[in-house]
C-alpha cells in the first residue's frame, strides 16, 4: 500500500496577503486620521488668528473713536486763535471778524465745512477767490487766502483800487506806494461801462503788448477811442473795435521812431512826435 504524500502549508504564507492588506488599510486609516486631525487643528488656529485680528481691529477703532470724541468735547478742540496766510492787502482783523469764528467753536468743524466761511469772505471782499484751513498745535486755526489775479489798477478820488481778473474792482483803496509798477493804471474812467469795455479790450490783447502798457486813459474824445501810455514813453491811440487787428503795424512803426512819439492806429497807421502840451497831459517828462 502506497503512502499518500502530505504537503505542508504554512498558514502565515496563505494569510500574508490578507494580513498585509489589513495592515495597509490600518496604516492608511491611521494616516488619514492624522491628516484630518492636523487639518482641523490648522483650521482652528486660522479661525482663532482671524478672530483675534478682528477683535484687535475693533478695539483699535473703538480706542481711536474714544480719543477723537474725547478731543472734540474737550476745551483743547476749541478755537484758540485765527491766523491769516497769503499775500493780501486786506485788513487782517476785519477779515477774521468777517469769518464769524468764535472762541467756543470747534476747530474740526471748520476743516469739514470751509464753504460757509468761504462764502462769507468772498461776498464781503471781491479779492478773495477761495480759502483753505489747516490746524496748527491742535487748536490754532490757519486760514490760507487765495486771491484773484490783479490785472491793473484804477485811480479814484480816494486812492487806487485793484482791477481783478474776474472783472470786479478790489474792495480796498490802496495808496500809490502799494501799486505795482508791473501793472497798468487806468485813469479817467468815471463810468463802469467804459471801464469794462476797455478792460475787455485789454484782456484780449497779446500778453507781450500788455506788458508794455503803463497807463490807460479814459479821457478820450470819443467813446470808441482808447489811449495807452507805454512804458517806453510813447503814446498809442486806437479804436476799441479795430486796435487788436492793427497791432501788427505798431511793432513796425515802433522800430522806426524814437521816444515820446504818438502812434495813431485809430483810423490809419501813422506817427508823429508828442507836443509839449501832450507830454504834460500824459505826465511824460
Automatic annotation (TrEMBL):
Pfam families: POTRA_1 (PF08478). The chain crosses the membrane at residues 55-73. The keyword Zinc does not apply. Keywords: Cell cycle, Cell division, Cell membrane, Membrane, Transmembrane, Transmembrane helix. It is found in: Cell membrane; Membrane. PROSITE patterns: POTRA. Its main location: membrane. GO terms for biological process: FtsZ-dependent cytokinesis. It comes from the Bacteria. This is Cell division protein DivIB. It comes from Lactobacillus helsingborgensis.
Amino acid at each position: 500500500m502506497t503512502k499518500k504524500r502530505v504537503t505542508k502549508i504554512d498558514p502565515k504564507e496563505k494569510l500574508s496577503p490578507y494580513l498585509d492588506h489589513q495592515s495597509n488599510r490600518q496604516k492608511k486609516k491611521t494616516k488619514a486620521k492624522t491628516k484630518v486631525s492636523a487639518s482641523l487643528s490648522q483650521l482652528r488656529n486660522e479661525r482663532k488668528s482671524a478672530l483675534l485680528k478682528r477683535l484687535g481691529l475693533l478695539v483699535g477703532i473703538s480706542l481711536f473713536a474714544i480719543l477723537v470724541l474725547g478731543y472734540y468735547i474737550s476745551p483743547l478742540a476749541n478755537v484758540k486763535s485765527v491766523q491769516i496766510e497769503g499775500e493780501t492787502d486786506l485788513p487782517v482783523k476785519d477779515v477774521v471778524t468777517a469769518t464769524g469764528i468764535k472762541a467756543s467753536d470747534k476747530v474740526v468743524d471748520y476743516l469739514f465745512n470751509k464753504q460757509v466761511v468761504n462764502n462769507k469772505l468772498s461776498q464781503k471782499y471781491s479779492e478773495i477767490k477761495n480759502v483753505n484751513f489747516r490746524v496748527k498745535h491742535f487748536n490754532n486755526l490757519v486760514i490760507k487766502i487765495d486771491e484773484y489775479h490783479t490785472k491793473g489798477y484804477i485811480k479814484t478820488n480816494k486812492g487806487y483800487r485793484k482791477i481783478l481778473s474776474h472783472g470786479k474792482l478790489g474792495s480796498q483803496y490802496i495808496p500809490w506806494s502799494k501799486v505795482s509798477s508791473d501793472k497798468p493804471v487806468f485813469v479817467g474812467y468815471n463810468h463802469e461801462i467804459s471801464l469794462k469795455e476797455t478792460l475787455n479790450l485789454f484782456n484780449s490783447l497779446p500778453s507781450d503788448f500788455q506788458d508794455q502798457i503803463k497807463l490807460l486813459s479814459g479821457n478820450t474824445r470819443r467813446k470808441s477811442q482808447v489811449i495807452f501810455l507805454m512804458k517806453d514813453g510813447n503814446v498809442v491811440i486806437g479804436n476799441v473795435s479795430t486796435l487788436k487787428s492793427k497791432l501788427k503795424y505798431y511793432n513796425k512803426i515802433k522800430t522806426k521812431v524814437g521816444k515820446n512819439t504818438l502812434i495813431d492806429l485809430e483810423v490809419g497807421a501813422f506817427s508823429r512826435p508828442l507836443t509839449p502840451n501832450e507830454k504834460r497831459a500824459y505826465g511824460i517828462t
